[in-house]
Design a protein that fits this description.
Number of domains: 2
CATH class of the largest domain: Alpha Beta
Order of helices and strands: HHHHEHEHEHEHEHEHEEH
Strand order of the largest sheet: 3-2-4-1-5-6-7-8
Number of helices: 11
Helix content: 40-55%
Structural class: alpha/beta
Strand content: 5-15%
Shape: elongated
CATH topology of the largest domain: Rossmann fold
CATH architecture of the largest domain: 3-Layer(aba) Sandwich
Bound molecules: guanosine-5'-triphosphate, magnesium ion
CATH superfamily of the largest domain: P-loop containing nucleotide triphosphate hydrolases
Largest sheet: 8 strands, mixed
Number of strands: 8
Distance between the termini: 6 Å
C-alpha cells in the first residue's frame, strides 16, 4: 500500500516552480478521499498543503488532527462508567479485558458488567478477562435484560467503591434500529443512578468507510466520547479513525495491537500518523 508515498511524491512535483497544479490538487484530493481519511479531512488537508508549501503531508495531518485533543479517559466521578459499544466482532470484549487490566495496573478498582446476554458464550469470555485483569464481574443469565445487568454492575461499583465500571455490550449492526434502541435504553437505565462518563466505540482497524457510518449511527443512538481502534497489529493502518475523529468529533483514545491483555495503548497522534504515511 504505497498510496501515501505516491501522494507525497505527487505533492512535491506540484510544488516545483512554474507548475500549474490546480487539476492535480484535485487528483490528490480524490486520492485522499479514497484512502480512508474521509472527505472533510481530505479537503481541509489539501487546502492547508496548497496554502503552505513548506508543510509536508505528515505535518499537515498532524496539524489538523493535532496532539492537543484530550485523549484521557473522563475521570471525575466515582465510579466512572464506561460503556463499550460497536458492531459484531470488532474486539469489544477483548478491549474491556485489556482496559480493565490497564486500569487495575494503574491503581484503580474495576467492575466489569457482562451486558452481552445475546451470545451464549459471551459471559464466560468476559469472565475470564475479569479474572485475568483482577476486576470484579457482574453478570446475569443468558437472555437477561442487558440494561438490568448494566445497572447492577454500576450498583456494585458504588457498593465496593470502584473507580471504574466497564460495561461490555453485545455486538450489533448499526443498521438495526431495535438493537440501537436497546443501547440507548442501557444508557438511560444506568443514568437513573449516575451519569455515563464515557461511551467508547470500538472500530476494527481494517474497516474502511463503513466505520464512519457506524460511528455516526452509534453516536446518534448513544452518544460517543471516544474511539478505540483495534487490530492494528495486522496490516491495517486504520486511517478511518481519523475520518471519525474529524467528522463525528470523538477522539481516538486507545489502540489495540494484539490479542493479549497488555496489547492496548493510549493513542498518540504523531507516531500513528508517521506509520500511516509510511505504509
Ligand atoms: N490481532 C488482534 N486481534 C484482536 C484485537 N482485538 C480483538 N481481537 C480479536 O478479535 C476477535 C473478536 O474479539 P472480541 O473481543 O470477541 O470482539 P467483540 O466485539 O466482543 O465480538 P462480539 O461480542 O461477538 O460482537 C477475537 O479473536 C480477538 O482475539 C487486536 O487488537 N488485535
Ligand atoms: Mg463481545
Amino acid at each position: 500500500m504505497a498510496l501515501f508515498s505516491a501522494i507525497t511524491s505527487l505533492i512535491s512535483k506540484l510544488r516545483e516552480p512554474g507548475v500549474n497544479a490546480d487539476l492535480d490538487w484535485n487528483e490528490i484530493e480524490n486520492q485522499l478521499i479514497q484512502s480512508d481519511l474521509g472527505p472533510k479531512l481530505s479537503v481541509e488537508l489539501v487546502e492547508l498543503l496548497k496554502k503552505n508549501s513548506k508543510v509536508s503531508l505528515e505535518e499537515g495531518l498532524l496539524e489538523l488532527l493535532g496532539n492537543e485533543r484530550d485523549r484521557n479517559l473522563f475521570k471525575n466521578k466515582s465510579p466512572n462508567v464506561i460503556l463499550i459499544v460497536g458492531v459484531n466482532g470488532v474486539g469489544k470484549t477483548t478491549t474491556v479485558g485489556k482496559l480493565a487490566h490497564y486500569l487495575v495496573t494503574t491503581g484503580n478498582k474495576v467492575v466489569i458488567g457482562a451486558a452481552d446476554t445475546f451470545r451464549a458464550a459471551a459471559t464466560g469470555q468476559v469472565s475470564t478477562w475479569a479474572v485475568n485483569a483482577g476486576a470484579t464481574l457482574v453478570s446475569g443469565k443468558d437472555g437477561a435484560d442487558p440494561a438490568a445487568i448494566a445497572f447492577d454492575a454500576v450498583a456494585k461499583g458504588f457498593e465496593i467503591g470502584a473507580d471504574f465500571v466497564l460495561i461490555d455490550t453485545a455486538g450489533r449492526l448499526h443498521t438495526k434500529a431495535g438493537l440501537m434502541d436497546e443501547l440507548s435504553k442501557i444508557r438511560r437505565v444506568i443514568e437513573k443512578r449516575t451519569p455515563v462518563g464515557e461511551v467508547l466505540l470500538v472500530i476494527d482497524g481494517t474497516t474502511g468507510q463503513n466505520g464512519l457510518a457506524q460511528a455516526k449511527i452509534f453516536g446518534e443512538a448513544v452518544g460517543l466520547s471516544g474511539v478505540v481502534v483495534t487490530k492494528l497489529d495486522g496490516s491495517a493502518k486504520g486511517g478511518i479513525a481519523f475520518a471519525i475523529e474529524r467528522e463525528v468529533g470523538a477522539p481516538i483514545k486507545f489502540v489495540g495491537i494484539g490479542e493479549g491483555i497488555s496489547d492496548l495503548q493510549p493513542f498518540e497522534a504523531a507516531p500513528y500518523i508517521a506509520s500511516l504515511i509510511r505504509s
